[in-house]
Every structure is written in structure tokens, then in C-alpha cells.
């Protein structure tokens, strides 16, 4: 009789353990579904600062398929994380330009660097610090992140991130191309940071909205390249998985390179209408803003495209009239020209854009 009781107890314990294991697997499945924008958690220990460290937050279009390095191929992609200790180094797999910001300090440029890059030539005070690293200002826009090197025993934690995401679509102006720190100093970045929002910049110098135009040798237009994982520097880019993140607001600033390469007004307008529809299909609930180019070219056609979408029943598409925001042939532009805004010009434009976007954002931050 005693032996029978023991057998029954063992059976009940096995059943309980089996149920607990199934609950754990179910919970893991739910979590992986809710976090499509992150690398799926693995049942292994990850060193603090390694690419798979879930405390590191990634913004931009990232490829997480390689477990040893993560790659983004659009300008302005960035990471954010908190870490303890007094020093931090970043390992990068390609030679390009990077910008790093620690705590509330300025953006520091690391130009033409690769391998292991020391971000703290002067050690920090002991404690917890916040790190952001972004890439920008070249024609490849490749950011190959291979992890961080921290002090012995240092740990990481999740940074504060904006509750909302803004996606910007544009050309060299949205990429801040003529400015020394490019993407981290342009109107898109400055405006988003002032609003407390995270952001992506799907922008490339010389690109036109309309396919077969633009000033680059590759004439692929943003009407096609926007839907790709990689920038115009990659001729065989795979399609982007739009389920990876969802912006609350999308801002489009295109037309300058269409004008300079003589895209007919009627073609630009029809292309813009189609493009707005395709962006809407990817983000059904986002507010989409089409900006008048700062220079004012293709303004009537941009407005007409917005009105066409509104007439079709899309009440979340808007036109932004930028007339008077910047003064041509003045310090608002690099070298006092009238094409690319200067750093001060970008700040000025960001200040005008900020109150327009603010009512459409929830604000605040989340861990």
C-alpha cells in the first residue's frame, strides 16, 4: 500500500512539472509575438553589452539575422542603453562615421573608424550612465554593431525611450548631409528629440520620389526604395518587414531632386498620390504629413496629392506649408546657398515643425 502511494505522488509531481514547463513555453511564445521588433530571447546567458543583450534598444531598420553582429543600412540608425562603470567601448564591423552621446553630454564624432572604438578616452564617474550611438554621413550608411565592451563586473539596464516613434522619409536634406554631424543634427532628429519621441530616417542623398529620376547613378526612386530593408547603396535589397515597428507619425519631405532632374509635374503628383496610398497600406493608423520642400519646388503638386488622398477618405494625411521657415541665401543654409540647411537652419526648421507634430503624439517615455 505504501509503495502504491509513492508511485501516485511521483506521478502527480511529474504532471505538475510538465504543466509548469508547458506554461513557460506558452509564455515565451506570447512574449516573442509581442516583441517582433526585438531579437527573440534565447535560453542562454548573454554578456552585458553583447548584441543580444535585451537592454540595448535598436532604432532604425536593423537586420538581426547574424547572432554575432547586427546591421542597419539606412542613415541615422541608433542604439540606446544604460550601463554601469567608468568606461565603454563599441565594436563595429565597418569603417564609417559614428556619433556617440553619453548622459547629457554633446554628440562626439568618430570619423572613419572601425574595429574597437573607445568612447571614454576620459573615464566617467563611477555609476550608471546612458549611451546613444548613431551612424551617418556617407553613401553606404552601414552600421555593423558587434557589441559593447564594459568594465569588469559592469551591467546594463534598459534606457528610457520615447513612447512614440516618428518615421521621416526624404533625401539629403532629411539626412542633414552637408552638416558635420549629419543625421544627429538635422531637423528630423532635432525635432523628434525635442518632442521626446524616437525616430527613423529613411533618407538618401540625391534620391527622387519618382523612379528613374534623381541625381545618383542608381535612379531607383523612393517610391520603390522606401519599401526595402537597405538604402539606395544596395541594388538587391530584400523587402523590409513592416511589422517590425509601427510609427505613430510619418513625415515625408521629397521633391527637390525630382525638380532638379526635371520630373514632369503631372508624373510627380500621380506618383506622390500612389506613394501616400502605399505608405497608408503599411501603417493604417499613422498620421502622415507631406511637407512642402523648403525650397518650395513641387509644392502645388504635393498639396494636390494630399488633397486627393483626403478626397479618397483618408483623414489622417496632412500638408505642411513650410513657406517662410528658412531664408534663402542666408546662414539658414550651408555656405549661404539655398539647397541644404545649415545646422542652425535645421534647428530653426525643427522649431517650426515641432508644434505641428506635437498634438498627434502621446508624449512621455517608457522603460
UniProtKB/TrEMBL annotation:
SUPFAM superfamilies: SGNH hydrolase. It comes from the Bacteria. One of its GO terms (molecular function) is carboxylic ester hydrolase activity. Gene3D superfamilies: Galactose-binding domain-like (2.60.120.260), SGNH hydrolase (3.40.50.1110). Pfam families: CE2_N, Lipase_GDSL_2. Residues 58-156 form the Carbohydrate esterase 2 N-terminal domain. Residues 169-346 form the SGNH hydrolase-type esterase domain. This is Lysophospholipase L1. The lineage of its organism: Bacteria, Pseudomonadati, Bacteroidota, Chitinophagia, Chitinophagales.
